[in-house]
Amino acid sequence: MATPLILASASSARRSLLDNAGLDYIAEAAQVDERQVEQEVPEAERTPSSIAIHLAIAKAKAVSMRNPLSIVIGCDQTMSLGFELFHKAPDLSSAKQTLQALRGKTHHLNSAVCLVRNNEVLWNHLSVATMRMRLFSDAFLDAYLERNGSRLLGSVGCYQLEGEGIQLFEAIEGDYFTILGLPLLPLLEELRKLGVNHA
């Protein structure tokens, strides 16, 4: 019998990526306090990349505790400008502040993925996308916020590249899957090694 595969996420974008890749899995949201996990990372290791990995593992372990025989995919993404870590904006005023901070600068999306079985980490990986925002005007920013509204609050960067958010950028380095928060190619390769992905 095949080993059950679980995605420890409620993200529709991540589910869509796995669906399109033809994987047989179920999705089960992990209930973890992300800020608490961040605080538990030793201060000397508390980088945006390290936090993304710790969060991915914490989410996978939370689901693995309930499903010890399954292989659980954990994933998380942080956004950083230098060493500054950003979180999702709670409202449009905060979203405007985030976009003003990113305007004309280069930030990074740090996407972590891991595999856990019986609370043991089998594998983890981090991919980074480099995102360079253009110097857009205040008038464009205000109109962008008005047109897109509260849906921007679901993205840590207050943009959605698959929509109008692409207008904010002048250059992007990194693959599409990393930007969406699930480094799919290395994950599929590791699942093939474990015999879970028979593609």
TrEMBL record:
Single GO MF annotation: nucleoside triphosphate diphosphatase activity
Cofactor names: a divalent metal cation
Biological process per Gene Ontology, one example term: nucleotide metabolic process
Name of the top EC class for this enzyme: hydrolase
Compartments in which it is found: Cytoplasm
Keyword vocabulary terms for this entry: Cytoplasm, Hydrolase, Nucleotide metabolism
InterPro entries: ITPase-like_fam, Maf-like
Active site location: 76
Main localization (coarse): cytoplasm
GO annotations of cellular component type: cytoplasm
EC number from the UniProt entry: 3.6.1.9
Catalytic reactions on record: a 2'-deoxyribonucleoside 5'-triphosphate + H2O = a 2'-deoxyribonucleoside 5'-phosphate + diphosphate + H(+); a ribonucleoside 5'-triphosphate + H2O = a ribonucleoside 5'-phosphate + diphosphate + H(+)
Protein family according to the UniProt entry: Belongs to the Maf family.
Function, in words: Nucleoside triphosphate pyrophosphatase. May have a dual role in cell division arrest and in preventing the incorporation of modified nucleotides into cellular nucleic acids.
Name of the featured protein: Nucleoside triphosphate pyrophosphatase
Organism: Rhizobium glycinendophyticum
